Structures are given as structure tokens and as C-alpha cells.
User: Fold this.
Amino acid sequence: MTLENITWEDQEKRGQLRPNIPTATFPYLATSHGNLAQTNAINQYLAETFNPALLGSNAFEKGQVRQWIEFANIEVARNNKALIYPLFGFYEYHKADADHATKDLKDHLSLLNKHLEGKSFIVGNSITLADVTMFNVLRPYFQLVFVEDQRKKLYANITSWFTSLAATEAAVKTYGRTVLCKVPAKAPKVEKKEEPKKEEKKEEKPKKEATGDDDEEKPKKKKANPLDLLPPSTFVLDEFKKEFLNTTEKKAVMENFWTKFDPSGFSFWSMVYQKLPTEGKIFFKTCNSSSFFLQKLDTFRKYTFAVHGVYGVEGNYDVKGVWMWRGTDIPEEVKEHDNFPYMTIKKLDHTVEADRKLIEEYWLNL
Assistant:
């Protein structure tokens, strides 16, 4: 029995014939009886074959399991397009759609939260496919959308159920460590070309007379980033980025870089993710972990330059990199990151040959 999740094009590149799948969709499960497609159908087949208890212990429980699977896949997951997919750039973010989806999602999760009151599982007294499906659908929301206050105040019962499942050996082996959201993720901005606006004559408004009243509301100033308050540096990060990324002669750029580098204004750091024994086995899952980490540091781009990614071989991948950022200490953006407790962060000294060699090894082999 084999499970495939590749495209028709991948099949053809391998010189394989397209399998006989009535729905022509992926993933599909190849069994001794024939090919079976669609995730829910595959889950049901595997449960019937290897662990029927996952489907419920009696006719009513089986109906409940099906009820909550459909609730997860239809009522909850339909909000992914507006709330989850834009975070990865799959769809453009629209505030109106996001607001509507957020309300819809909260209404449905309130129902689930009420249902889970006093319960350890969604159906019966043991784990079923209802739990597995709901956990899979809710995981990105608990990692990227709902912060701790929301989880505790609005969905305390769901949170208790979710964290209990996330800690099981099966969940850790399948998903790795589930890091809960501290700061909501934001969708990347899509740059649009604006058409030149026609100049309109503005009518001059009469100036208001000073009344001496201090009660009028003043626009709130955005809190300054501590890194912007550091003493000016002789090293211009943006110029280096443009020069380094737009040339094939990176060695020459690095040689010039060392003559301009300002150690009082910038510092180097090695960052390595402390993976669990079950993590780093599968390439695409490890890449997802790396993407999650970097996505939450998107606003930190203007203060840093780094080469950070997935290194290793199949079955033994690591997420790590070498960073240069503004200042000589670890900034708040990094400390506030959800994964900060699981990162080994070491300051590098560019005057030490081994550290300098490590920096160049990462940066020159992007």
C-alpha cells in the first residue's frame, strides 16, 4: 500500500503512466483493491482497515464523527482562503474578506468550545478521526492567528483539547513541535502600480484660532523601534544588500564589505533551530518550519541581512543560518519570536578566523 501526493506532471517526468483514479485528484492511495483518492476517503479506509475505533464505537458515534469531520472541513476550513492562505502569499489579503471570515470562524469555534466543555475528545472517550481532522484544520489558526489571550478567554476548552493532542507522541512524530501563536502573522504586502493622480486644487481652509484647549485629540505617534534610536553607523546596510544581491562577483563584494563593516553599529550571529528527534526528517516539512520562522520576522528585514534556510540530507535536515543585524545585542523582534526559546543563538566575532570563515561560507554559498 502506497500513498502518493504528486502531480500528473511529476508522473510524466518520471516516465510513469497516469494511475487510474476516477476523480483525477491527489493525494491517492494505491491498495490491493485499486486506487483511492480524496483525503477523507483515504482516512476512512485506513481506519476501517487498521483501527476501526477511530470511526466511533457505535452507529451514533460514527454519525457524530462524520458530523464533526464535515464541520471541520466545511465550516471551519472555508475561512482558510481569507485568513491563512494570504499569510503565505497564495492569495491577496482583503480586509473586508478577513473580517467576515474572522466573525464566521469565531461563531463556529464558539460552538465547538461549548461542545468540548468537560470533554477530552470530540466524540466518545477516545481519539477518533473527528479529533484528527479538527486538529489538522485548526493547527494553522493556533500557530498564526489566535494569540494566548484569545485562546484562553474565548476558547479555553478547545485550547485544552488542542494542546493535549499536540503533546501526544503521534502528533509530535507527524507535525513536530507545535508552537502556539504569540503575535498574529501578517500577510505580505502586495505592491501595486498606482496610476498618476490628477492634481486637484485644494481649497484653503481658514486657520483655527488658538483656544489654549489641550483636550483636542492629537494623532498618536508610532512607537519608535529601539534600533532606530542607535547612534548613526558608517555602514549603509541597504547599499550592501543591493550590491551583494545584484552581482555574480560576491567574493569581490565581500572583500569590500570587510573594509566598510562597522562593528559598533552591527553584529553577526549564528542561529540554529533545536529540532526534536522526530523533526528534520522530511524536506518539505522542514522547509515549512523555516518559512514560518522567517515569515514572522518580515518587519525585521530593514535591520538585517541573513542567509537562513534548510541544510542537510534526507532524514537529517537542520534549519539554521548566519545573520548580521543592527546593534550589538539580540533585538526585541527576535526575542519576541515564538521560536526564540527553541533557537541556539551565538554571537560571532568577525576578527576570529573561524567565525569569519563561517560567515563567508554561508553568505557566499546562497
Notes: The radius of gyration is 26 Å.
